[in-house]
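tool_log.txt
---
The assistant was asked to compare two proteins side by side. It first ran the structure predictor on the initial sequence, then on the second. Raw inputs and outputs are pasted verbatim so the downstream comparison step can read them without reformatting.
(1)
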Amino acid sequence: MKKTRFFIANSVTKERSLIETKKVFHEAKENVEGKPRMIVTDKMNAYPYVVKEEFPESIHVRAGIQDAINNNKLERFHGTWKERNKVMRGLCKDATAEQMLENYRTYYNFIRGHSTLDGHTPAETAGIDLALGKK
């Protein structure tokens, strides 16, 4: 996500538990080819166990917002989602919330241009071309 801002996995959770964390990291593992060199997280206690289990060859950095290596871009995405989520209705059911979050991730990655990417989408920056709407 660092250079392209391409977001590979997300989930709505009721709590920050080991089980919920495993679900998100397993989804991330299923959504990518290859292995990340480094995974940056905040300092939640579940992360070291899950990163070691799902990505044993990756370096795990537990970072704060002012550290040289941090997860600020991910936290910014979460802030953007929370702002959007506040004004939406009908997210009372887990399945609805999950679907809306998945839809937002698609919008974020493939449709919405980012000013920090010179107006390009994360998919364009990552070299992902779905050739939608082109003949």
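(2)
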Amino acid sequence: MNLLDRREMLRAVRRLRCPFASKALILLYHRVAELSSDPQLLAVTPARFEEHLKILREHYTVISLEQLTRFLREGKIPHRSVVLTFDDGYADALYNAKPLLERYDVPATVYVATGFVGADREFYWDELEGLLLRPGNLPEHLSLNAAGTIFQWRLGQSAQYSEADYERWRGWNVAMDNDPTPRQNIYRTLCARLLQMSEEDRENVLNAVRTWAGATPSCRPIHRPLSAEEIVRLSEGGLVEVGAHTMSHAVLSAIPTAAQETEIRESKTRLEAMLGRPLFSFSYPFGKRTDYTEETVAIVRQAGFRCACSNFPGNVCRGADLFQLPRVIAPHCGGKEFRGWLRRWFLGFRR
């Protein structure tokens, strides 16, 4: 048996053992907010989030990420343990999520993309939603040079997008197979393209879209990132831990090593300066296995983090890689459905 075959066999054995062993589940949230349009499926409403917390408090062992890493180092995991995390660093983490976390005494970690802290701008997926998927008129033709690739669209009738059109299609999201109008197709295509770009190339494309749409950079209150003062308030009391999520929310595998070093180390340095204490955890933006590399993991270790969260589904079992912890995206559903969903994860019957 060669080395690769042996490694694959060991992975298979671990997968078979995990359903019968003590395990944890790390939940990934992004936003706790009431949004009229959520094409990236990032938000859970405050009412639904409260239902989730009730279920977790009544039926599971809710622990912090720092506690989980300590248990993993000791080789033990509390029965039916769950960890809550949030990515990106929206202001609603402070105003909507934290009061509910305090009410139910549930710890959480909020990962902040530090380059957006206090900035009067939205994340690019939010800005594109505001430019493309809101009511209003746009030019009928869009031609873009996106890092050397030319894209062209004709909007046709959807150049005029009425309130009725918006109401009809505001439930659309990128998980759906169809694009009901060219606007949704432009949104889907640009989000996928911008994801792989450098920050400079991404900003060039956004500037071109703004110019075409006759818009200027702005930040809607409901999509606002946290400020430095709000990050300090978020961490007060010790229930919410703050972690680093790079500077620009870059796909780290798509940028050079030196740029990865800057994104990772600078995000840690800036947050530590704001908080006045060391950070112990990191979250890879987007977080699929293709969104970072072994080199990225090494940089995170060398930067002084003690663990890092990815974004591929799975339970956390004994022997888990502390720098590639799997997470499961929490569904936007009510308490009864959420309880059944959690139960399937702990029994090994995943959706």
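---
observation on (2): DSSP finds twelve helices and 14 strands in the chain. The chain has two domains: 23-118+223-347, 124-218.
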